[in-house]
Design brief:
binds fe (ii) ion; Phenylalanine Hydroxylase; single chain; alpha/beta; 4-stranded mixed sheet; two-stranded parallel sheet; 12 helices
Length: about 260
């Protein structure tokens, strides 16, 4: 989903493994030990549970075949190594096939706290624990299946739902706002940023508003949508969503004119 990347994909060997450098291993370890205390405190229960299931540790970078063994057994998902640059057609096509696109490179040491494009730490530590949860896994699969039927214009709108849920979603749990978006959870700075209502906006979760909310990928997010429960994710999975997407597209067009 990226237009330009400062990184190039690292090829996997015939067994799906990548020969990471010592610097990559140090970056993983540093990030893991910075991110985990914050994530354990602020992530939703499904994430914390998924971390236990996956058995991820500071010893890394994680290798896709090892993550996939657990993930596939839990929910039938697996990570698919891709270039940093993939288009919407490929992106939704992979999700429809329960394959989660995963860039295999590790961020550089000078980009530890914020990276505007997904690296291996983001894909594994941000997304995989949640993908162990059947409800979130089904939702991600549903987005993929809908996305492959959409025009490019509809895909752009559908990507807003993906962005404000799977990447940057918040959820209320026992009276506290928790994080389930992988874009937040893989960035230690964004974890604190996303919950600081003195600098960001927490909006009630409303699908028609989300469909009309543009986002930028290259800045810490100013807007987050807070679900009251996972019931709201189930409620989106409705055949009427395509007509709501079309209404949002025409509203945004008339607003520009
Ligand atoms: Fe992501």
């Amino acid at each position: 989903m990226m237009k330009n990347s400062a990184y190039t994909a690292i090829p996997v060997d015939e067994k799906g493994y990548v020969a990471y450098s010592k610097e990559d291993a140090e970056t993983w370890q540093h990030l893991f030990n910075w991110q985990q205390p914050l994530a354990q405190e602020h992530a939703c229960a499904s994430y914390v549970e998924g971390m236990k299931t996956l058995g991820l540790s500071e010893d890394g970078p994680a290798q896709l075949p090892e993550v996939n063994r657990v993930l596939f057994a839990e929910t039938g998902w697996r990570l698919e190594p891709v270039d940093a640059l993939i288009n919407f057609k490929r992106f939704f096509g992979l999700l429809a096939d329960k394959r989660f696109p995963a860039a295999t490179f590790m961020r550089r040491p000078d980009q530890l706290d914020y990276l505007p494009e997904p690296d291996l730490f983001h894909e594994v530590m941000g997304h995989c624990p949640i993908l162990c949860n059947p409800e979130f896994a089904t939702f991600t699969h549903w987005i993929g299946k809908l996305g492959v039927q959409c025009s490019h214009e509809q895909q752009v709108a559908l990507a807003r739902i993906y962005w404000f849920t799977i990447e940057f979603g918040l959820i209320r749990e026992a009276g506290t706002t928790k994080i389930f978006g992988g874009g937040i959870l893989s960035s230690p700075k964004e974890i604190s940023h996303s919950l600081d209502v003195s600098v960001v906006n927490h909006h009630p979760f409303d699908i028609d508003t989300i469909l009309r909310t543009r986002y930028r990928i290259d800045i810490p997010q100013p807007n987050y949508f807070v679900m009251e429960s996972t019931e709201q994710l189930l409620a989106i999975q409705d055949k009427k969503l395509l007509s709501r997407i079309d209404n949002a597209i025409s509203d945004l067009k008339s607003a520009v004119i």
